[in-house]
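Supplementary material to the annual report.
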Amino acid sequence: MWSDSFDARLVTIQYERLLAAAKSTYGEELMEGLDQNLKDLSASIARVMAEPVDPVVDMPVLTASKR
Amino acid sequence: MTVHDSSLVEMAAAVKSREISAVELVQGFQERIQALEPTIKAWVTFEPEKALNDAKRVDDDIAAGRDPGPLAGIPFGVKDVFDASGYPTRCGAYPEREPAARDSFAVARLRDSGAVVMGKTVTTAFAFVDPSISRNPKNPARTPGGSSAGSGASVGGNSIPFALGTQTAGSTLRPAAYCGAVGFKPTYGRIGRSGITPLAMSLDHAGVICRSVADAAALIDVMSGFDPADPASRAFGPVNASATVQNGENGPAPRLAVLTEAFDRSSGPMATRIREVADAARREGAVVEDVSLPLDLLLAVQRVVMLSEASSAHRDLTTNHPELNVPRLRAVVRAGSLIPAEVYLRADRLRRRLAVEVDLLLRRYDAIFLPSVTSTAPTPETTGDPSLQAPWTLLGIPSISLPAGADSDGLPFAMQLVGADGEDAALLRTARWMEKRFSL
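Predicted assembly:
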């Protein structure tokens, strides 16, 4: 039901996107701790984006009447 | 055993019967706090006279024949992200602040039940990961965890019978586990959050750190309720947790789903000890079966949601207050601001699917069983690893940490039980069954 693995290159792609966005938004010199956050976050984003979702069945919590 | 070491129900009964006055009860805990505080640094605002005045009002009520409530005269600690009238809410970051004008929902519920605010406990800055000054009462060279650092340290050090915590990833259960206390995070929406400084709104929970499952039940019975000022509050009926726990402690053995991925992530000693508990439960008649869940995906989704929402909550603060010493929060706010909306929404879709899968699992078992933390308490440069608490926070389902012995250095091991959405009382019943047999 769930993906067992995903292409590790997706993490690198996500990291490069985040790094470029960080530099363009906050300047070329990254504040302390931000680069590590971007690395951790790129792994999380890659994992999330690698997991298929059904646009009908997988209703977001935001719009579902779960609560 | 003194009154100070008895359960909350027994303590309140002792106050109501005048076996001990509320003032004497509070004074006894104040002496414990003052003895321990130089070592563990758990309190950010501690004004003994203020608590004694509140305790005297409880005694006056009893003398006048009025019932102060089920927690009569019992003092408690308030994590310094909850507003408590008359105390500043400094969030572990503001050097000074005006006192709050009114109580948060949780504090008001407790005060209405006769409990007495002892003061504010140390939190990491804005309940995030910048470490605090607090230390672990079992070993001051170790962290008490975070973000509810002072609450965990003070209850674990037995200098207060219970304290409030919050949990966005693992901030109630982890300090409880590291400090040898019980930590309980009820279902999302069970305890109103108005008057709590937010970190990530769809993840933030109020919780309690206390000394037993029966105490957790007594607390949830009075704290549960609809909060019109909290958009996520749910109109549950009465929990009746205390009665459920009492009736269930000698009831049928539970069905436990042992989460294998959690043991894979844990240190050898922690995994071994908690497996021993599972095996002992099986010998006592419990159904104990290994199950599998995509823990890596749960954690990835939780991180995306938390960073997006924390960035939204605190961007203005970190921009407009450069004087605040919150370097890790600043970095997280910047990282979170770069997450595309598409990624956040995809995480939200996966969150719902994961919730459905775990809900189906919990129709076959009474609880998911796993270590509360990946290891015993680490050194204080970190507040520890939230990876075994965060999945259940993401899904909004109740979880509880119980002590499970200690290693040769006296650092606590801890087991965790996770229940189905809204089934807080049933989870506490299972927890009591385990506590009675295996909690040390």
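Chain A has a mean pLDDT of 89.
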